[in-house]
Automatic annotation (TrEMBL):
UniProt key word Transmembrane helix: yes
Organism: Cyprinus carpio
Classification via PANTHER family: AIG1-TYPE G DOMAIN-CONTAINING PROTEIN (PTHR31594), NEOVERRUCOTOXIN SUBUNIT ALPHA-LIKE ISOFORM X1-RELATED (PTHR31594:SF11)
Coiled-coil intervals: 332-359
Domain (SNTX MACPF/CDC-like) ranges: 77-241
This protein's UniProt keywords: Coiled coil, Membrane, Transmembrane, Transmembrane helix
Lineage per the UniProt record: Eukaryota, Metazoa, Chordata, Craniata, Vertebrata
Database matches in InterPro entries: Cytolytic_pore-forming_toxin, SNTX_MACPF/CDC-like_dom, Stonustoxin-like_helical, Thioredoxin_11
Domain Stonustoxin-like helical, first and last residues per copy: 342-412
Domain SNTX thioredoxin-like as annotated: residue spans: 418-539
Transmembrane annotation, as ranges: 39-65
Record's protein name: Uncharacterized protein
Keyword set includes Transmembrane: yes
């Protein structure tokens, strides 16, 4: 447990350093230009969001729950990948093995059970979340984690998972059309007549595809960019109504549904992106083109020549041969949800950055534009390193290289909570005490913003008539540049490490949170006993133990 705690604390130290670097970028962004007040406020919110959400929340990533994998067949979405009966699959990396098989071509084609499976789906969605997209494509939690980590390459309709909004000023509605045609599966005779048993010894695959559901799917994604004057909720409702009209407008002889003049004006501002398993002569880019494409979809998707794997069923190789590689443990749904939430936060930050970089003031001042670009470079590096870590950890957990104990105990040891979450914990009678590693200075007052706001209310500003006027700005030392405060933070991190072992198995919860406290800058360990804050600068590892045991 102590070794795993050391790993967690070392990671926390790195997060502190990263947070310091990002906050330095944030402070450099705030120029003293009076006409940029609105942009500065947006920048301030954006950078505080990055520091307090993405960097602290990334602590959650190193914690991975694992659960035992059942021995039954595993159902997996194909996502445009070439997965056919007999294809070998490595579930540790969620990748297929091309060119290697257990059977020769003749054996695979013999006794293949094939039957029709016609079914049609038509769905609409106004959500751009990862969760909603995964649900439409029937992607499991484990496969979703692999996709988010960059382990899974997608094609055809699966590319819909990669299509995300680039701006917060964007309304989006998606139409999903799906046709399944036939179902194929291997028979028991295949499983008992292995042509190439040496494949088991190679240990490159964990499963084999034993069944495939064929068909074709298509997504049409409709976007409408909002102006600053337009109401987001109202516009989303109008866009949703326009997209839901498409099946009715495309019906032959349906004179009851015609486009009005307002509909035509609305249609001119709607763009369309197509993701599908069928190749069109020309992909639709406008609403009117999407109307014509929709009329063709039923015929195209039902054509057997356009059928591709939609869903596959995997059979564990170790049930055929005990020497074969296997998945030792699977990524639980709770961890997949944590990874998903983190990626969602990163995408929100990217959208905010895109909006800021397109702002007229950002383009008017080259210095602001340059510093925004500098921050984007740093943010991109952080994101790449984080996803690289996800790609490294997921296969290690599934392959048993990371012990189940190490990944579960880490999350149980330290949780990250906002103020609401902290309050709910404090009233929980199951915990006698709470030790909270607290970031106390994430929400600090910036002198440039304060001076800017104050200056705009002065008579000197109101009386300006083209003259240059200077206004003094107080200079303060940033907490994250104070070597004493950083040393104090490292001390508190190490103190938290020493407390994890003595309190193992007791009713004491360890959490990380952010609570502004100007009198106690940097960080501190808060101690709560029976829901009450009893100490704001806790420093004695064994004193609290004695208190709680009495």
């Amino acid at each position: 447990m102590l070794i795993h705690a050391n790993n967690l604390i070392n990671y926390a130290n790195n997060v502190v350093i990263d947070a310091s670097n990002v906050l330095t970028h944030a402070s450099n962004m705030l120029l003293r230009v009076s006409s940029c007040q609105h942009l500065f406020v947006l920048l301030k919110v954006f950078f505080f969001f990055i520091c307090s959400k993405c960097y602290i929340y990334s602590l959650l990533f190193v914690v991975v729950f694992s659960t035992a994998l059942p021995s039954a067949s595993v159902e997996v979405a194909a996502l445009g990948r070439l997965l056919f009966p007999g294809t070998l699959y490595d579930s540790r990396k969620d990748s297929f093995i091309p060119g290697v098989t257990l059977w020769d071509k003749t054996s695979l084609s013999e006794d293949l059970d094939s039957r029709p499976k016609p079914r049609t789906y038509l769905k609409f969605s106004s959500s751009d979340s990862i969760s909603t997209k995964s649900s439409l494509l029937d992607v499991s939690a484990s496969l979703k984690a692999s996709f988010l980590g960059g382990l899974v390459g997608v094609g055809g309709s699966g590319r819909f998972l990669q299509d995300t909004k680039s701006s917060n000023q964007q309304s989006r509605v998606t139409m999903f059309y799906s046709e399944t045609t036939r179902y194929e599966q291997l028979t028991m005779s295949h499983l008992h007549k292995i042509t190439y048993p040496e494949v088991f010894e190679q240990k490159t695959a964990t499963h084999v595809v034993v069944a495939v559901l064929y068909g074709a799917q298509a997504f049409m994604v409709f976007d409408r960019t909002l102006s600053e004057e337009e109401d987001e909720q109202q516009m989303e409702g109008k866009l949703n109504a326009m997209v839901n009209k498409i099946p009715k407008l495309s019906g032959e002889g349906n004179a009851a549904f015609k486009m009005t003049e307002d509909d035509n004006k609305m249609a001119e501002k709607i763009t369309c992106t197509f993701h599908g398993d069928v190749r069109l002569q020309q992909n639709p880019t406008t609403y009117m083109e999407a109307l014509q494409t929709y009329k063709q979809l039923p015929t195209l998707l039902k054509d057997p020549q356009n059928a591709v794997p939609i869903k596959v069923w995997l059979y564990p190789l170790h049930l055929l041969n005990a020497t074969a590689a296997r998945v030792e443990r699977e990524i639980s749904e709770s961890v997949a949800t944590n990874i998903e939430a983190l990626i969602e936060e990163l995408r929100k930050a990217e959208r905010t950055f895109n909006d800021l970089s397109r702002h007229t003031l950002a383009n008017s001042f080259s210095d602001i534009k340059e510093r925004l670009r500098s921050f984007q470079d740093s943010f991109s590096i952080y994101k790449k390193m984080l996803l690289k870590a996800v790609r490294r950890v997921l296969p290690a957990v599934r392959g048993g290289e990371m012990e189940e104990n190490s990944v579960t105990k880490s999350l149980e040891g330290v949780r990250i909570e906002d103020s609401d979450g902290l309050n709910s914990i404090l009233v929980n009678p199951d915990f006698l005490g709470v030790l909270c590693f607290t970031f106390t200075s994430l929400k600090y007052e910036d002198p440039y913003l304060s001076a800017l706001k104050e200056y705009l209310t002065t008579d000197r500003f109101k009386e300006l008539d083209g003259e240059h006027s200077m206004y003094p700005v107080a200079s303060i030392r940033k907490w994250f540049k104070d070597s004493d405060l950083m040393a104090k933070m490292r001390f508190n991190v190490n103190l938290l490490k020493t407390l994890l072992k003595p309190f193992e198995g007791q009713k004491v919860l360890f959490i990380i949170s952010a609570i502004s406290d100007a009198s106690n800058p940097g960080s501190s360990i808060y101690m709560y006993e029976l829901g009450q804050l009893t100490e704001k600068q806790y420093q004695y590892p064994f004193r609290v133990l004695a208190r709680l045991e009495n």
